[in-house]
Amino acid sequence: MEEKKINEKESIELIARMLSDTKSRLEVGDGNILLNWGVLTVAVATVVWIAVAVTNNPAYNGLWGLMVLGWLLNRKHTVAQKKRGYKSYTDQVCAKIWRAVSILGVSGALMCAIFQYATGTSPWFAMFIYALMVVGGGTFASGAVLKVRSMVFGGAFSVGFGFGLICCLLTGIAIKPVWLMPIFILCFGLMMILPGLEMRQKARKEYERA
Amino acid sequence: MKELDPLLHSQLRLAVMSILINVEEADFVYLREKTEATAGNLSVQLDKLAAAGYITIEKGFFGKKTRTVCRISEQGLRAFEKYVEALKEYLNL
Asked: CB-CB: which of A4, A11, A22 is closest to B34?
């Protein structure tokens, strides 16, 4: 393309061609960030669950600290996005949603730590419900923006489960602790791993078609 | 009839604006790839658009390499909309 005058018809054709060429499509690797976070969360939850169940030592809950590895995954994602050369409006909206989810998550964890320090009683069960609802809300919103049904479904399922747990607590329905971790793992599998796999498959199909 | 904005009524600058209207931001390499322009020519046209306030250019680093990121401005968006309206009049669309 050069610096040259064009007529009106060529102008309209050029605008249409450029808009079509840069239409936001799923790219191979787009589902990876969701998949990576999902696998990390499920893996850490499983390790904590087994370690606590086998040893009966709650100190193994400290293994949740492994979630900080997620920042490395974010870094990898940012580098991949920069290599792509552009950022779409949906990328921007999703980035803002997940930034809000991160801030809410870290704030929740800090609150739990402060309460534990101040009262000597563990409030971390609240974090469990909070994570299901906050991450579920983020997944639901991202799924709506990206038009990925399994994300919307997974997010809604997780928020619903979190809310159900609050209702159980308030109405005095006994929750068996042994079921909590499998529920958590199921919710994160539905919220992140399944949609991540779906997005990867969709992107591959779009790439093959193009 | 409305007059066509001379700054936009040029193949390469119009292509750049059409791309930037569709994304939040795009880097120089991506724009060069999509427009198939030479680096020198693209650079000159980007500077013209930036001087008119139609786009913003941000220079930064990606690793050890420099990275130039372009975004359409509010003024650019309005100019593009006016240009398309004028085109529609010319073509009776």
From this structure: A22
